[in-house]
């Protein structure tokens, strides 16, 4: 018993006419007759009664039809939905990204991509997270493509596409606020608003302080850029943050860090050994064409 046999059976059950059913199925009448006979032989029961030149579904055929028709309808709908997901014009892209990219980079990128006429109906499912969380989602096949720190390896390809400058920010009335640039050693004595352990920026900041052989004076540990900036604006400490869009909305002073110098790379990451649907491939190629 296979899909074609059940589909042929349902069409014949609905028409009760071999010629009409064969026409609807775009097959020959002998092929339809053979398929029904094979199905009846496998099930060990007659499904139709002869009625002149036509047939009439019997109680056994009706029982089978009641069971099979919903299953076939569900399979047909599933097929349509699956085809829609991979349709290069209307498909779906599961995209993950770091929190620091959420205010400008990601919205602008998606907007520009959708402005291309052939992309206008593509749908995005979005998720924010740390690089560690995104890496786990790749392993669990939950996402198609992401913007992360470097996670090259284990079947994941990471291509650098963007650099984020790191800045020191202070309250406007802070002793360091009259400066335009700074050596990190000058700031290490002050209380810091620091990123929490699970943040992608945490190991970067730790390495900066290690490179100058000093430890930060951590006042608060927080998760995201906006909250860090808010705490600095409230005069609760100073912080090292990426030069993100929206930073100018906070009443803080931005200082260029001249030593140690560091730029944070943002990577386009995807699983190179797994199937990539046409809309995802199109989006990936669009991003790479902008580098």
TrEMBL record:
HTH lysR-type domain residues: 1-58
Record key words, sorted: DNA-binding, Transcription, Transcription regulation
Pfam family membership, one: LysR_substrate
InterPro entries for this protein: LysR_HTH_N, LysR_subst-bd, WH-like_DNA-bd_sf, WH_DNA-bd_sf
SUPFAM superfamilies from the UniProt entry: Periplasmic binding protein-like II, Winged helix' DNA-binding domain
Family: Belongs to the LysR transcriptional regulatory family.
PANTHER family in the cross-refs: HTH-TYPE TRANSCRIPTIONAL REGULATOR, HTH-TYPE TRANSCRIPTIONAL REGULATOR CYSL
Protein name: LysR family transcriptional regulator
């Amino acid at each position: 018993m296979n899909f074609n046999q059940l589909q042929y059976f349902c069409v014949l059950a609905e028409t009760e006419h071999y010629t009409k059913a064969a026409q609807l199925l775009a097959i020959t009448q002998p092929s339809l007759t053979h398929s029904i006979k094979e199905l009846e032989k496998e099930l060990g029961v007659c499904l139709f009664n002869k009625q002149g030149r036509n047939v009439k579904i019997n109680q056994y055929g009706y029982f089978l039809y009641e069971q099979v028709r919903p299953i076939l309808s569900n399979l047909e709908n599933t097929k349509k939905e699956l085809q829609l997901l991979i349709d290069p014009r209307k498909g779906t892209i599961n995209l993950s990204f770091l929190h620091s990219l959420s205010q400008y980079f990601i919205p602008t990128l998606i907007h520009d991509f959708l402005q291309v006429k052939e992309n206008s109906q593509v749908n995005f499912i979005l998720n924010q997270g740390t690089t560690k969380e995104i890496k786990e989602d790749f392993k669990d096949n939950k996402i198609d493509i992401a913007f992360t720190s470097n996670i090259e390896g284990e079947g994941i390809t990471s291509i650098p596409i963007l650099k984020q400058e790191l800045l020191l920010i202070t309250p406007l009335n802070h002793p360091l606020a009259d400066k335009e640039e700074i050596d990190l050693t000058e700031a290490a004595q002050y209380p810091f608003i620091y990123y929490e352990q699970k943040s992608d920026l945490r190991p970067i900041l730790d390495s900066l302080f290690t490179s100058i052989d000093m430890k930060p004076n951590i006042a608060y540990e927080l998760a995201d850029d906006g909250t860090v900036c808010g705490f600095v604006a409230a005069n609760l400490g100073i912080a090292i943050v990426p030069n993100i869009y929206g930073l100018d909305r906070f009443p803080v002073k931005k200082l260029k860090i001249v030593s140690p110098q560091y730029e944070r790379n943002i990577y386009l990451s995807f699983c190179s050994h797994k199937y990539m649907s046409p809309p995802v491939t199109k989006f990936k190629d669009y991003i790479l064409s902008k580098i």
